[in-house]
Amino acid sequence: MSLLREQYIRNDVERERLKKVRELAMRFAKRAPKHDEEGSFPFDNFEDLRQGGYNGLTVPKSHGGEEISLYELVQVQECLGWGDGSTALGFGWHLGQLLHLRTSGKWPEPLFEELCRDVIQEGSLLNVFGSEAGTGSPSRGGKPATTAERITGGYRVNGRKTFSTLSPILDRFVVTATVTPEDTVSEFLVKRSEAVKVIETWNTMGMRSTGSHDVVLEEVFVPEEARIVTGSGTDDGSGWLLHIPACYAGIAMAARDFAVEFAGTYSPNSLPGPIGEVPTVRQLIGQMEAELRTARSVLYEAAAVWDRQPKLRPGLRPQLGLAKHVVTNRALQVVDLAMRIVGGTSLSKALPLERYARDIRAGLFNPPMDNMLLDQLAKEALGEFGRSSAL
């Protein structure tokens, strides 16, 4: 394992875990071109993860899981992202949501205990579907058009969700809905049934294998105990969302590895040695290293602060958002530099760089969005000098 990879490994437990995850990531990397070309969901990858017991990484130890920290989650995600961005991003939503439920306590304990048991015993996965065509990203505060009508014993849910990552494999998921006649917003745990339909709409430029199709709910019954009141539990600052930049850091690492190996081995007959000996190429490699190392330092520091300062978590959102902003934008630069180093060959479908270039752009559209984060940072800075200055 290279020094670059060793840098953020703190102990033998993490080293051994990442050794095993990397073996999976290498397997996923071999499958990625086929899934990308077909736009097919990587059931084989998720079966490998299930058999390896990775579905329960963020489940509390009291419920049979490993209860890994956010820092360790970032390590795992970065490693998986190196192998296949689509698999890593999808799996990250599951691991992240379970970490969030563990630290926020937002679910009623019987409901959470049942979920954890099924994750450990059956390898169940979870995600939250909040996006809709008419409201855009839920992070922007749009009110769900999906409705939950109160009826005897529970609710009748109707609606259509977009960007429903992992939809081909989930046997349960959470949806946001506007409750009638209360006119409030809540989350509901929905179990797969004939009333739930997955419409295969996901045909995108990048992240083609996340299975982020539309999910249609028609007269779905949800029992009273499966309602999760929005805003319940402890505010954990949404640290779990660092699974997103960790995935893109992994893709950037893969692009860097490919470009560096190429530069060190490719020797055109116009040169006496490999192109890595050309000063301009060495400058590009150095710039790529600087971008990647800066991004990773911000990412791992944010995760470490969140882990060791539980009381400060609600106020860490700007720093966590900054980590996502820095990583995704610098990851874009890393992949661009890698392609410049490799040259026109990087556009070939036979090589992974063009897939990395397509996948990496998806990070711009995962939460938190750049413009929202920058506005948040500006408000925080202006707030230092009083409300009047901010206006």
Automatic annotation (TrEMBL):
Ranges of residues in domain Acyl-CoA oxidase/dehydrogenase middle: 131-220
Molecular-function GO term, any one: acyl-CoA dehydrogenase activity
Keywords, ordered alphabetically: FAD, Flavoprotein, Oxidoreductase
Keyword flag Nucleus: no
Acyl-CoA dehydrogenase/oxidase N-terminal domain span: 15-97
Domain Acyl-CoA dehydrogenase/oxidase C-terminal: 246-365
Domain of life of the native organism: Bacteria
Cofactor entry: FAD
The family this protein is said to belong to: Belongs to the acyl-CoA dehydrogenase family.
Name of the protein in question: Acyl-CoA dehydrogenase
